Amino acid sequence: MEKRFRISSALKDIIGRDLITNDFVAIFELVKNSFDAHASIVEIEFDDDSIMIVDDGKGMSRSDIVDKWLFVAYSAKKTNEEDDGLPRDYRNKISRRRGYAGSKGIGRFSCDRLGRSLDLYTRSVDGKRVEHLHVDWKTFEQNPKKEFATVDVDLTHTARFPVAEKATMPRTNGTVLVISDLRDDWEATKIERLRSYLAKLVDPFQSAGGLKIVTHVVEEGWEDVEGPVGNNIVDLLNDKTANINVTISDGKITTSLNDRGALIYKVEENSTYKKLEGAEITGNLYYLNRSAKQTFTGKMGVQPVSFGNLFLFVNGFRIFPVGEESNDTWGIARRKQQGTARYFGLRDILGKIDVTAPPGMFIEASSRDAGLIMNGQASQLVEAVVKHVIQRLERYVVTVNWPDKLDQDRDDTSGLTSDSARARMIRVVRSLAGSSRVKLLEYNSDLIDIVNERSAEFEESMAGLSIVAEEMGDQALLTKIERSRQRYEDLKRAEAEANERARLESEARREAERRARAAEQRADQAVARVERLEGQNRLLHNLQGRENEELTLLHHQVIIYATEIRGLVDRSLRKLGEPEPQLDMIASNLEQISFQVSRVLGVTRFATQAAFKLNADSIKADIVQFLREYVEEVAATFGEVGKTIFESNNLRAVMTFKPIDLSIVIDNLFSNASKAKATEIHFLCRKGATGAGAIEVLVEDNGRGIDPSRVDPSKIFEKAYTGSKRGSGLGLYHVRQVLEGLGGTIGLDPERKGNQARFIIKLPGGEKKG
Phi and psi (nearest 5°) for 262? Predict the structure, then answer.
């Protein structure tokens, strides 16, 4: 004998209040229904003991209510019948979606979660009257032995929609839910939390396709919870930080990576994710440096970590709780534990994955707050997001941004133009262009370009650029690479010759000194030497205490620089004598000559004014102390600036630097002040905002400043840019190069007054002095 299941009226609780355990999730489910009904606006009005949800969607007919809404667990969305029967003119007004926000057929029981009574008013697109359904959820709770299908609900009709205090009723088609006898209180703080959730669950990245959500409160004095919900995070973060955009569709994966508004690269590859076929997946992920976090907090009133991280949207609506502060669906927190310096943490990112898919492809857990059911499609989605969105942006940020300690506080591309930054970007693009699986479609030819031959990363960068140029078929870049390599080889030969000549001269000098000392001993002639003052911690001191060895070493440096200059001059003259002179190579040689001349001048000033032990090209010392002593005891004696003030404020920063190169920075600042007829120059050291030990040096003079009619302040650090007929445009360019080599920067103070020449030098945190 055949038997059938019987369903208790208690089923209502199981698929209602027991399943939808969160009031916010309950409202999300009802908003999803409005979205799927093609509504352009949803208004939620809170009164003392009722919640009214109003939308201007397609509405329902009487048969829709009987055959769909009252049919438990049936979903016309899942069978692709949801929009059947719509008039043609209405279809032309809406965009047909490939999927729906909900498809389980139980979201309607969210009404039971919110209140004990429901009145549903609806009119279809071509309807003449408003259908009215009344459900008293308490009648399902009286006797669990009573069958679910035998509990009566009232279905009638009326001429018009009910009246609201603030919400706007639909003019033609739409749906109004009036939920009364509420199960919980909705005070201002709870509604504010709901708005916050709706802001990130519905429209933080314009994911809901134009759906507008508005909340109203009948209670007076609650203005903070009135009005439209949502914040356009895209506009907030675009052009402020590094971000990646990835699209997986039609068997292809297309990736664009941008850094503060500048495209770095765009690539394409074949998708190997077979289970994702039929879906379109778009990922948009932002890296949050300290500057971006401060911008976000200032605009949104909440810290990014509290807002969330990488959200997941399916057919326009958020899959909860993916992306919540404590959720780790993407495995980001687990990876971070394996290496803090190599991987992103949840605090470092903010973004969304937007999936458009047919019904049933991605299945949301019935509890509504447990994310997706991890079937084959969901597993491949996670794998694709981790590999092509998270890890690819992570590779760029860890390689390019993180090594630059000052990058944390930048919201523009100024830090990407240094040779070291260019070299790091080339390394990233090379890794993609060198793969047979990836096709390089586009790259930033302004940033990913030839680095200076003096850069330590030159050889690696040229190898990387060659791969990029060959991949893109960029013949002009290949020609530039070949010329740069030729200049580099010339410089290497000149440097080798200079070192060999310096070595031979040093050996000859040491032999002469040995003979002189032997002669002195035989003659028993003693030369008194002045002992150095004990405990004096100075990098520069009086010439009278100089040892001969120090002069020898300074002389050694002059020989090296002078030999390089001679080689550069000879090569330039040869190029000028060719039938078609390579003017770009000659210009590069002249810039190198200018830099080496600056070095020679620096050595000369050391030799004639200060007894500095230059026993290596680089030293490890307190850079603040060096700057103070060079400013006060060397630079001040050569320039025409009358008064020099250096305030160190007892700051220290022990780091490795080249004294001669650093002297170029100070000499150029003094030279510019002198040209501006300054009588006073002031150096002020203060703690930087970029981490422990970071130093900022403010440099200003009382000269005539920067005349904007003759000089563009934004270009003064560019190579060959000058506002003077006699200027070379290399002084401040060399200053920037030296400081960038130290991991620092120089720029005009944004708070300077008028045309004042006021600079900020930023230096990263130094090494601990042991």
Answer: -100, 125
Residue spans of alpha helices (H) in 223-346: 233-237, 290-300, 304-307, 332-338
- Residues 286, 292, 295: CA angle, nearest 5 degrees: 130
- Which tokens go with 664? 């170029």
Q: What angle (nearest 5°) sits at the alpha carbon of residue 160, between those of residues 157 and 163?
A: 120
Exposure on the CB side of residue 675, measured as CA atoms within 13 A: 17
pLDDT digits (tens, 9 = 90+) for 280-339: 999 999 999 999 998 888 877 778 888 889 999 888 778 888 988 888 999 999 988 887
Q: What per-residue confidence (pLDDT) applies to 604? A: 63
Within a 10 A sphere around the Cβ of 748, how many other Cβ atoms? Answer: 16
Q: Is the dihedral of CA 705, 707, 711, 712 positive or negative?
A: positive
Distance CA(348)–CA(661), nearest Å, equals 36
pLDDT tier, 80 (very low <50, low <70, confident <90, very high otherwise) = low
- Tell me how far apart the terminal alpha carbons of the chain are, to the nearest angstrom: 91
Query: At 129, is the secondary structure helix, strand, or coil?
Result: coil
| Cis ω for the linkage preceding 659 (within 30 of 0) | no
- CA 751 to each of CA 45, 694, 747: distance values in angstroms, whole numbers, following the listed order: 47, 20, 11
How far is 231 from 199, CA to CA, in rounded Å? 6
More confident of the two residues 133 and 1: 133
Pairing of strands 317-318, 619-622: unpaired
What lies within 8 Å, CB to CB, of 272 at 6+ separation is none
* Measured distance CA(248)–CA(244) in Å, rounded: 13
Cβ count near 630 (within 10 Å): 26
Across the range 82-110, mean pLDDT stands at: 55
Asked if residues 443 and 427 have their Cβ atoms less than 8 Å apart, the reply is no
